[in-house]
């Protein structure tokens, strides 16, 4: 191409094996060697590049023999995808019946006619071709999209098989589910595969070994969270988008009035008509709704009429949902644990298994596949907690865990991790306590068994505090937060100024 275009080119290429046909993508920088816009004629893009590629392939592999071409075309007769034979027949028919009768005056080799009739018989089984009279065929308008969709489905099933093979496992094809499974129900399981679906877009295909004993393939649009999810992680995907609790409360309080008043919200809390979350502060709770309204005001969804009045539109809930979907805040994927089951069993932190053990609504597990593995891991984790002194078993075999199990395990893991990091950073570690204001430079994140934590550093010490997506854009900057009871945190970006000595 450099010789054809008369300029040096900056380019990068990547080989893909995510379909039944290995292929390469080439990206060329849009500047020539003089820094001017690179101009490429349309016919060169359409045909020239392909011809050059064919020349190179012929030089490397030699000419394609008639036997090789025949074998490839014969393999296309029963292929469950859109083929070259299909394309040739569609172009020849041009919306009219395809006449393959010898007396129709068509000059066609016997081998070519045999290929077409064989392919048409295959398409007939899919309801995409019909023989009206002997030798005259009508092609369905859905032939190309239907066969392309079938080919994509075949590629997906192959990818699911490959993901299982990498783990040395095998499942019956009947256990494969392409999609989110039960409508509205999330898929929970172990992530065993992920790949780009639309190589020019942002759709990611996940292969999840579900606790329901089936292998799921789910599509998501969150590239960042998909990158963060490691193979072997426990994830939840395909969650049905839901309205934020704050948005639901704003909608209820403004119903029939078209306005939201923070002072009225606070009065309802004082009189006991609105219940706060456990260990929540009333002022901070109301302020969180005001901050949400500020974000929606900047998006043009609500209007501030005064210090204590907000104009709420009738379609507030739908617009708030659409706003979150556009910004990607309502991800339909969640990483439940970055640790695999074996690491969770022996961990000193608060794991996903621990949350399952103390939950009153444990997730339903199948007695086969990953569901069976989770059941065994829960039993092993119970024994480990008893060994560590965090739980006990009664003479009747009932397991009793301490009431503050998760908080104790999280603190235990943070203290151990902090002590290790203190040696590496040559900086003392201090545990953040509930009700404390934390402040420092956001220097990085850690993925622990208890969850994801942010590291805050100042001149004297560092702390590990709960991470939230809102701080991701402020890496290397000063941030401030307030630790809440129960392990939550309320972040404020930027340094808090005040009087001091």
Contiguous helical run count: 15
- Largest sheet geometry: 6 strands, mixed
Strand content: 15-25%
Strand runs, count: 21
Rg, rounded, reads 31 Å
Shape: globular
Strand pairing plus helix content: what structural class?
A: alpha+beta
| Overall pLDDT score | 86
Low-confidence stretches: 495-501
What is the terminal separation in angstroms?
Answer: 68 Å
Write up this protein.
The chain is globular and about 90 Å long. Strand 18 (451-457) and strand 19 form a beta hairpin. The protein is built from 15 helices and 21 strands. The longest helix is centred in the first third of the chain and has 24 residues, at 143-166. The protein has a six-stranded mixed beta sheet. The chain starts with a helix and ends in an 8-residue tail after the last strand. It is an alpha+beta fold. It has helices spanning 2-5, 42-61, 66-75, 84-93, 110-125, 143-166, 223-228, 245-254, 262-270, 282-298, 316-327, 341-346, 352-358, 369-388, 405-425; strands spanning 11-16, 23-28, 98-99, 129-133, 136-139, 176-178, 187-196, 204-210, 215-220, 234-237, 259-260, 303-306, 309-311, 333-337, 391-393, 399-401, 437-448, 451-457, 462-466, 478-483, 489-493. Residues 495-501 have low confidence and may be disordered.
């Amino acid at each position: 191409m450099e010789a054809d275009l008369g300029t040096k080119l900056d380019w990068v290429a990547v080989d893909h094996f995510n379909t039944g046909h290995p292929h390469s993508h080439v990206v060329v920088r849009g500047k020539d060697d003089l820094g001017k816009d690179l101009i490429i004629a349309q016919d060169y893009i359409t045909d020239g590049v392909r011809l050059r590629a064919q020349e190179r392939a012929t030089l490397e592999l030699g000419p394609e023999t008639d036997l090789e071409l025949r074998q490839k075309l014969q393999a296309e007769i029963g292929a469950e995808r859109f083929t070259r034979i299909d394309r040739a027949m569609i172009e020849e028919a041009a919306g009219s019946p395809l006449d393959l009768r010898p007396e129709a005056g068509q000059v066609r080799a016997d081998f070519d006619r045999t290929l077409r009739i064989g392919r048409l018989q295959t398409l007939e089984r899919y309801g995409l071709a019909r023989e009206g009279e002997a030798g005259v065929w009508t092609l369905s308008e859905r032939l190309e999209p239907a066969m392309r969709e079938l080919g994509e489905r075949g590629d997906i099933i192959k990818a699911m098989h490959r993901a299982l093979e990498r783990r040395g496992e095998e499942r019956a094809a009947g256990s494969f589910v392409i999609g989110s499974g039960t409508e509205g129900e999330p898929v929970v399981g172990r992530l065993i595969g992920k790949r780009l679906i639309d190589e020019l877009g942002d759709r990611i295909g996940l292969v999840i070994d579900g606790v329901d004993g089936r292998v799921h393939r789910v599509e998501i649009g969150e590239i960042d969270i998909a990158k963060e999810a490691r193979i072997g992680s426990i994830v939840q995907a395909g969650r049905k988008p839901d309205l934020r609790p704050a948005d639901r409360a704003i909608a209820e309080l403004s119903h029939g009035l078209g306005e939201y008043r923070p002072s009225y919200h606070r009065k309802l809390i004082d009189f006991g008509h609105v219940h706060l979350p456990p260990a929540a502060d009333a002022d901070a709770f109301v302020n969180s709704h005001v901050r949400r309204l500020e974000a929606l005001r900047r998006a043009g969804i609500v209007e501030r009429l005064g210090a204590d009045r907000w104009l709420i539109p009738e379609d507030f809930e739908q617009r708030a949902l659409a706003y979150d979907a556009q910004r990607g805040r309502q991800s339909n994927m969640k990483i439940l644990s970055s640790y695999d089951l074996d690491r969770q069993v022996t961990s000193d932190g608060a794991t996903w298994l621990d949350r399952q053990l103390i939950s009153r609504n444990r997730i339903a597990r199948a007695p086969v596949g990953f569901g069976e593995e989770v059941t065994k891991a829960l039993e092993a984790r119970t024994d480990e907690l008893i060994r560590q002194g965090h739980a006990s078993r009664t003479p009747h075999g009932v397991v009793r865990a301490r009431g503050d199990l998760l908080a104790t395990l999280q603190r235990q893991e943070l203290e151990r991790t902090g002590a290790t990091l203190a040696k590496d950073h040559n900086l003392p570690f201090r545990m953040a306590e509930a009700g404390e204001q934390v402040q420092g430079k956001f220097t990085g994140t850690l993925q622990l068994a208890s969850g994801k934590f942010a590291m805050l550093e100042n001149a004297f010490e560092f702390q590990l505090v709960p991470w939230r997506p809102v701080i991701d854009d402020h890496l290397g900057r000063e941030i401030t937060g307030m630790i809440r009871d129960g392990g939550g945190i309320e972040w404020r970006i930027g340094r808090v100024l005040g009087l001091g000595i």
